[in-house]
Amino acid sequence: MMISVASGKGGTGKTLVTTNMAASIGGVELLDCDVEEPNSYLFFPEMDERESSDCMVPIPVIDEDRCTRCGRCSDFCAYHALAVFPQKVLLFPELCHGCGGCALLCPEGAISEGSRSIGRIHRGRSGEVRLLWGELFVGEPMATPLIRAVKAEARGDLVLVDSPPGTACPVIEAARGSDFCLLVTEPTPFGLYDLSIAVQVVRGMDIPCGVVVNRSGIGDRGVYDYCKKESIPILLEIPMKREIAELYSRGVLFTTAMAEWRDKFVLLLERIAEEVESR
Amino acid sequence: MKQLVVISGKGGTGKTTMTASLAALARGEMVVADCDVDAPDLHLLLKPEVRETFDFLGLQAASIDPDKCTRCGKCEEACRFCAISDFAVDPAACEGCRVCTVVCPSEAVTMVDRISGHAFVSDTRFGTMVHAELFPGEEASGKLVTMVRELASRIAAEENKDLVIIDGSPGIGCPVIASITGTDLALVMTEPSISGAHDLERILAVAEHFGVEALVAVNKHDLNPEMTEEIGGLCGDLGVELAGRLPFDPEVVGAMIRGETLVEVEGPVGEAIRDLWGKIRARL
Q: What is the rounded distance in angstroms from the CA atom of residue B149 to the CA atom of residue B134?
């Protein structure tokens, strides 16, 4: 079973939920697909079997001797990654989506494909949790190929995916193929508004979803009323407690210091499994 | 005209609350732009009244005409984005590269425009606001950010305003790069946590990479004073000023619920923002 953890709004507690859930249930693979700002690994400071590799994406390589500067490649490129000047063809690699169209079209066969790295895929193990996370290089705009690469390495029977914030293409890529999407929100107007967009996204993908309300006790009833109206189950509430916030700020899993919470996360997993089965 | 962008690596560190408060302090002198297009919240505080709406054309998507399709499968084979299966295109996966139109021997594939969202120009109590909605799950959020910024700059010029304040999105990827490039100053929000510090370092590297000067503000600094000091040290090492320290105040959520900015209510956070605003003005 693959469970993605998403939110719409940033900073609502996706990583808090994913890391504590993984540590509480064990026997799980945690994929941190928030590759722009991966944080999950910070909560597992003692990790074994650490290794990493590059995430390669294809880019065109131009043979300047064969090239006649006809401009077919730059005319075709939908991403403006190629510019043809009288003396030279310029490539803007970070704009290239690696579609292969330029190599396909070049009448001189002057374009072959090479590759370049846009980030790193890291792996490690902490007790019963296997961790995989992507780290996009600074200045790289495209997160989705790296998210795809991290997800391609998932092997476990139980996989938790920590998604990026927002509701655009990186979130879709992180949630794609999951059996359930856990939406973490906070009971505030911002939390509600972004939750409602995230619900449209997962419903559009036909993925069942449930909600975790983090920092319950602050804010208002908007999120609760919305979930009731939309028949979305609220599967867990984590209260606004200074202790939880402080542990999080120091990079400590609160379930290790507040052991009673481990059972709640185990129960959360059971409730998710029920929701998936009842579909 | 100057452009100030409010960004953060980590989400939920107070960008939108800060942007709204700065817009209130600069009322009448600025145009504000919400560039967090896939989770926009600024409208909840500024309550814009829309005066103009624009369609946003995102990436084109391929479409296969089943009458012309001979089911040869060449398009599926050539597509690098796994957007074609069973001789149909999944528009959510299509990146609009048009390779399928090239390889199709029977001209069955065409590219179609798609409206991926809207941009709005609106009135607020502080001045003109430009904002947008990206339809859920759409791509090209960076392109929509660029559209919002272009609209905001054009309107600021028309209205003789000398400042555009931009609310950015979290992360370091395409919409963030589109928000930050060519701005005059980035106010980087963070929080005193291990995640906040980690993400701050990366977003400051992005600002440096694109040649944008940065100032840092720590939200809820008193929740973990040691971590705030660590962030101060990090800023010092990178030669970036830690210009603002906002205290934790449960009243902030109350103001959000009432749709008020923090400088419209009495409180320690509002005072800290006024102080920070002085430093921002001095830099612009």
A: 15
